[in-house]
Automatic annotation (TrEMBL):
Species whose genome carries this gene: Lates calcarifer (Barramundi)
Gene encoding the protein: LOC108891064
PANTHER family: PROGRAMMED CELL DEATH 1 LIGAND 1 (PTHR25466:SF3), T-LYMPHOCYTE ACTIVATION ANTIGEN (PTHR25466)
Record-given protein name: Coxsackievirus and adenovirus receptor homolog isoform X2
Cellular component terms per the entry's GO annotation: external side of plasma membrane
Keyword Iron set for record: no
Length: 196
């Protein structure tokens, strides 16, 4: 009889653990260095379970090296365990944790941030993990060091053309007016001389 009870307890714990699942929302991310990215996972949760028992460990796995991106132990962030590579660059969105979401914002990306990211979640009712890949590409330094030239908008070029044509037309009109005045003055002098 005791064996049956122990077997029932063991089967119940296996069934409960089997219902807890962590899923990554996107399996592959692409970004450029110095930009930022948001890595996102979901996990099974219910409203009546406390999140104080939730432990989360998110790591970058690269060849034989593992770097801690984020660590939450029983609802408390453990920033001391974060790898120096991510220090000051990872922001954890606490507001979505109750909804069963892990959202990590990584800023000022570097090419060495490329690799496989594994996020493991442990609770009193089970544990699970899922992974995604991030590829950070380098920015061409020759382009970034070149001063940026702002192209003039097409409408500005048209305005310059219209102003130039207007000035030219005004110049022609002014020259014509001067020519008319010179003729009038000449005609006026001639008529004064003939009157004398």
């Amino acid at each position: 009889m005791i064996c049956w009870i122990l077997l029932l307890i063991k089967l119940t714990s296996c069934v409960c653990a089997g219902t807890f699942v962590v899923n990554v929302t996107q399996t592959s991310y692409q970004a450029e260095e110095n930009h930022h990215i948001t890595l996102d996972w979901t996990f099974t949760t219910t409203t009546h379970r406390s999140l104080d028992s939730v432990s989360i460990l998110c790591e970058l796995i690269l060849d034989q090296k593992t770097s801690v991106l984020f660590h939450l132990h029983e609802g408390v962030e453990v920033s001391e365990s974060q790898d120096e590579q991510f220090s000051g660059r990872v922001h954890f969105d606490k507001d979505v944790l109750r909804e069963g979401r892990i959202r990590l914002h990584v800023s000022r990306l570097r090419t060495e941030d490329s690799g496989l990211y594994l996020c493991e979640v442990k609770t009193n009712y089970g544990s699970s993990s899922d992974k995604c890949r991030l590829n950070v590409t380098a920015v061409d330094q020759s382009e970034s060091q070149r001063p940026t030239e702002r192209p003039e908008p097409e409408s500005r070029g048209r305005i310059d053309l219209y102003v130039g044509l207007g000035l030219t037309a005004a110049g022609v009109a002014a020259a014509a007016a001067v020519a008319v005045l010179v003729r009038l003055c000449s005609a006026s002098r001639r008529s004064i001389k003939s009157a004398d």
